[in-house]
From TrEMBL:
GO terms for biological process: myelination. GO terms for molecular function: structural constituent of myelin sheath. Keywords: Cell membrane, Membrane, Transmembrane, Transmembrane helix. InterPro entries: MAL (IPR013295), Marvel (IPR008253), MARVEL-CKLF_proteins (IPR050578). Forms oligomers. The gene is Pllp. GO terms for cellular component: apical plasma membrane; myelin sheath. Residues 1-120 form the MARVEL domain. Belongs to the MAL family. The chain crosses the membrane at residues 20-44, 56-81, 96-116. This is Plasmolipin. It is a multi-pass membrane protein. It is found in: Apical cell membrane; Myelin membrane. The keyword Disulfide bond does not apply.
Amino acid sequence: VLGLLVWALLADTTYHLHAAYGWVMFVSIFFWIVTVLFFVTYLLQLQLKFYVIPWPLMLMIFNAAATVLYITAFVTCAAAVQPTSWRQWDYNRRAAASFFACLTMIAYGASTFFSFRAWKGLGSNAATSQVTDHV
C-alpha cells in the first residue's frame, strides 16, 4: 500500500519534467509489482509447489535490494522537491510521495530483518528445536 501511494502521488504530478522522478517512479512501480506477485504467490501457497527455490533466502535478497533502492529513491525524491514550485499541488504531492517513500523504505528494512531471521532459523521456539534435534 505504501509503495502504491508513492507512485500514485508522483504519477499525478508533472514528474516527466524532472529526470529525478523517473528513477523514483521506476523503483516504486517495479517493487510494487514484484511485491504484489510475491503476495499472490504466498496467498495461493504456490511456494509449496516450487520447493526447489530457497524462498526465505530469495525473500531476504529481494527485501534487501528493495531497501537499498528505496533509500536512493527516497533521497532522490526528497532532494527534488522544490517548495518554490509554480504548481502548489505538485509540491504537496511530491512532498507526500517523499514521506511515503521513507515509510516504504523503513517497511522494506523491517522485512529484510525478519526475512533474515527466517532464513537463519532464528524465529523457532524451544519446542521445535528440541523435536528436530532428537530425531
